[in-house]
Amino acid sequence: MTYSEISCDINFASIRNLLESTELTGRKNLFEHEVYKLLDCLNICSAPEVIFIDKNKQYPDDMITAIPGDRVVLKIVSTEITHKTDVGGVRVVENNPGIIRSSVEQMIDDVSCNYAVIIEGEGGRGSGIYHGLSGDELRRAVKDNINGVLAVQHIPFSGAMGSELILSLKYTREFGMVLGAGLGGTDTELFSGILKKDASFVTAAAAVTDGTEFLSLFKNTVSYKKLAGHTRGQQAIDIDASLVDLFSSFIMLGNCFSISNPDAAFVIDELEINPFILNEAGFIPLDGLCRFSRPEQITPARPQYKINSLLHPKSIGIIGVSTTRANYGQIILNNIIAEGFDKSGIRIIRPGIDSFKDVVCVPDLESLDIKLDLLVVAVGAGQVPGIIDTVTEKNICESVMLIPGGIGETGESKSMAKDITGKINKSRAREDNGPVFLGANSLGVVSHPGKYDTLFIPEEKLPKERGSQKRNIAFISQSGAFMITRLSKRPELDPAYMISIGNQTDLTLGDMISYFKDKKEIDVIGVYAEGFKDMDGLCFIRALREAVLKGKSVVVYKAGRTAEGRSAAASHTASIAGDYRIFESCVKQAGGMVADDFTQFQDLLLLAGRLSSKKIRGSRVAAVSGAGFEAVGMADCISDENYQLELASFSDITGELLKKLMEQKGLLSLTEIKNPLDLNPGSDDETHLLAVKYLAEDDNVDAVIAGLDPLSPATDTLLKSQGEIYSFNNPDSIVLKLSELTDKYDKPIIGVIDAGKLFDPMAQALTEKGMIIFRSADRAVKTLAVYMEAEISI
To answer: Can you tell me the distance from the alpha carbon of 494 to that of 471, in angstroms, rounded to the nearest whole number?
Structure first.
């Protein structure tokens, strides 16, 4: 039986009854002993025996000492106290009725004092029930909220670092239920902060993973290595099947009690077992918490099929065109016309004139003579609500692009945004589902296949090549400025589609990637994200995974990684940015590439676009350069522990070919045939080209990185006007020959030109020929590593 075939026999009805009965007491959280009841319903572990000692009741001796063993663990039980050890709420005592009774009484008094001190030390912060209380009054209030003490069977264990497992389910607004596992115990947060990322704790969205897949993530953690006995001095044990059972049961539990389950009576907001320990009986929970709630109403789904009308309209209307000055509306009109859109399909909504720039004008929306595929709204935010009323009540258009900012981005405009969203959602009840809306605060869209451009950036500021070159990239961005800045810096990107999605008043990031995953002509999807709407993160990664499985590359940069960054993102796009670590884990697990910074994002986007027809067979990389430092630097980057790349071992045939080449060039005594291959500064263009050719033909090599040595006196790397003797226009130059070589092979070959502005023409010439060129070796290796790792994981 494979792990994926293991079925966990979960009693969901009993869990629902447990939550209902707890809710009737006025609580939305389970006490520890109730968490153990929930775990019993999962049938995957044996909880320790427990007795709840209500502080207001008397118990006979035989009931108090019914727990087996010479000692028992006493734990404080209170709805207000989560970290019991911090307030002295955990003690191990002799299993004796008199000792237990006196310890319970003493513990309640001590915890009341300790917790009161903590509340006062935090300036009175804490639960609202303690607001304004201090001294004896505060201590009495804390004591009143202590329900009793839990007597728990004492389970001996070593307590060594790594011998404890924390396992959690957490409801997140963006991704729904997220499963997490890692180093457990009281030092969980410490280890998470000091260990390498994903070495102590891993997460995954429960809706898009299973127990076996999550185990593969967990195996990279220190916790797994300790639990499985993979460290020196330990005996290795097979725990994989038990872990898959454990993970699978939590995943199924999370998916059942989730807002994404329309039949869910409750949502588990958080379930955490910290720790599980492992002994002969299996995994034993030693502490746990659970919070739950009733599910909230889900926003109606957008009619994603109408995105086609947005991106490939046959008719476009524009509100906000000035006839006297180049305002946003007129710039948008100019760009639409310049892109080649048929003027007969354009309507300007403007009273007082019949036409402008040979385009038909109508006085208002009700006067339109055709139903629009796309309505572009380029007026002030104050006029938007009235326009929304018209387009949601009347059958005027299939899609709307909201250019105005100031809708939902500030406290004053949030009520306007909420009102607009309500009207849009109400229109979903129409037979035609109502129009879809892009924005607000959208910079616009460039759709080369749709032959239009609504960016309100003048052509003079952002020249756009309007040629017939292959365009296989869709670029979706919450920040329009980020999008056009990337294009300005790297015009060779020139995506087929550029979409400034803005505040996601209606259409979301998940909607857009869901649309592009099925577009055959799109090989690469680039996304700049600041935040997700409720549950749209889950929609996003589901669509991302489907896109990857269809052979597409998805490159993502997520802003708002820190508290300061999240604050800035929220104020800019009216989006609530989620936890970055969860986001990164979910995207990588789905097969996407997560860029570390802006530069890497644009590098990855360009790399993926240019390499879409190449095959990634493995992680073995060959590096070649005539500069010693560059060769060594590439080796260091390839062998970096943060990446899975490895230096390829040349085949015997390749070794002989390279040796013969060096002999012919008189360089063998100066060159060692190994990876990385340091060619020596005396290597001419032909030497570089043949070396790259031999490496590309080696079956032991999956990718080649070539340093092109522009400063070498033996290479032709200058523009003709800079020096006739070194001109790359010479027929045998590497600039003229290398692109032919890279087109010939189906494996990645990328070039490095690590030199100053004098060699910009060389880099531009190679780029125009379709080559991937980096201006530093370390940047080349790191970008290629992220790309290859994502492709290999598919």
So the answer is: 7
Q: Residue 649: what are its φ and ψ, rounded to 5°?
A: -95, 120
Nearest-CA neighbor of 126 among 58, 135, 628, 117? Answer: 117
Contacts of 784 (CB under 8 A, 6+ apart): 607, 621, 645, 703, 705, 748, 750
Cβ distance 351 to 320 under 8 Å? Answer: no
Listed in order, strand segments (DSSP E) in 597-723 are 620-625, 646-647, 677-678, 703-707
Vertex 297: Cα angle to 291 and 302 (nearest 5): 130
pLDDT tens-digit series, residues 139-195: 999 999 999 999 999 987 655 545 789 999 999 999 999 999 998 776 555 555 555
Residue 518: what residue type? D
Which structure tokens are listed for 33? 């002993």
Q: Are 277 and 194 in contact (CB under 8 A)?
A: no
Helix axes 384-393, 414-427, angle to 10 degrees: 10
Distance of CA 705 to the CA centre of its chain: 28
More confident residue, 234 or 16: 16
Per-residue pLDDT tens over the stretch 514-550: 999 999 999 999 999 999 999 999 999 999 999 999 9
What are the beta bridge partners of residue 362?
349
E strands in 280-428: 282-285, 288-293, 316-319, 346-349, 355-356, 359-362, 372-377, 397-402
- Nearest-CA neighbor of 316 among 347, 351, 275, 350? 347
Of 639 and 786, the structure prediction assigns the larger pLDDT to 786
* Contacting residues for 349 by C-beta, under 8 A, at least 6 apart: 317, 318, 319, 361, 362, 363, 364, 365, 368
The H helix count followed by the E strand count for the chain is 25, 31
Question: In the predicted model, is pLDDT for residue 93 greater than 90?
Answer: yes
Q: What is the pLDDT of residues 430-476, one digit of tens each?
A: 999 999 999 999 999 999 999 999 999 988 898 876 555 679 999 99
